[in-house]
Amino acid sequence: MESGTAVELLVYPDDCDAYGHLNQAGFLRLFERARWELLARGPGVDLFERQGVWPAVRKASVEFLRQVYPGEHLRFDIEVGHWGETSFTLLQRARKLANDEVAAECETVFVTIGGDGRPVRVPAAIGQFFGVRASRRTGASRQYAVRGLSTAVDLTGDGPAVLFVHGFPLDRTMWRPIAATLTGWQRIAPDLRGMGLTEVPEAGYTMANYADDLVALLDQAHVERAVVCGMSMGGYVAFELLRRHPGRVQALVLVNSRAAADDAEGRTRRDGMIARIRRDGPRFVAEEMLPRLLAPTTLQTMPDVVRQVRSMMTVHNGAGLIGALEAMRDRESALPLLPEITVPTLVVHGSDDQLIPVAEARVMAEQIPHAHFAIIPSAGHVAPMEQPVNTGRVIREFLEALL
Ligand code: MLT
Hints:
By secondary structure, the chain is α/β, with parallel strands linked by helices.
């Protein structure tokens, strides 16, 4: 998944602190040196100057993952995280040459400043050097081609993999509060086909398509097995992964989800929603579902969460929502699968979920051999966003026990 541009640097004693470690500040300098080296070996260190601009660093953050000592060689890869009008984000990763372990990751946001000190459009020549073909706002995520579809993925960290699968009508960003706390794990959070910033295919699709997309994504990331953490519809996809690709699932986390298929009433409700999206467009979905997705306490006391969930619900287009509704309507029941699940499983559920009763989740957990069950107080259907600290802690403890 990495771009081909890499620079190798030796760590000198004066890169390190008084204790002989490469600390955060040292890493920041080395990431900068790697960028200059890359320019020096390519178009020249005066690339920006020749375009009449200066790349001012607006923000830089380093995720420190492993100790590095003087004398070690590091290889720095670089990718574009975001390409905007007057700014761009570079994502760098430093690996130890000796064992290929990731030592640190760095995200740097640049603003291109013109001669008069104001932000100006990023010159095309700079985009060409970094291999940017299309400009698309993706925030912290990157676009990957997965089975022919441009797919938005938040990919962070290094270590055993956790694949996060979002619910409906949400997107990969719902996992950010939890993913941020799971250092030591490679966190992979894609937007499912048709949702968020992932392309919508022409024809309709099923749970099987979602599951196969995720396996193709794991292949691209060279991940053999991942802990699959699915919220609600993401849980339905996780069951499909277990059915179709059991060897790829190391463990299962089912958040605010259920095993039963839609009953006749549920299918009729989905058909009604599909017809209404076709007739009126997708705007009503957010307003209608929001009060049921979130716990009353969240609605009353957490305006930021309400705003985030609402804006997440309005990024999808009608075709993507219809694709997901059809896939959910036609999904198989996972009830027969439950007693046969052999991987470690955690079932987490918000105490105030209005869409899937907590009692149903408890019964599901009881049917999965040795499953753990946790209730998150004061959370509705979107526990990872409503109560990220508690939900994150429960998930982290489960993951740590797997190591
Ligand atoms: C979800 O949160 O993914 C959906 O509410 C699940 C569903 O509609 O069955």
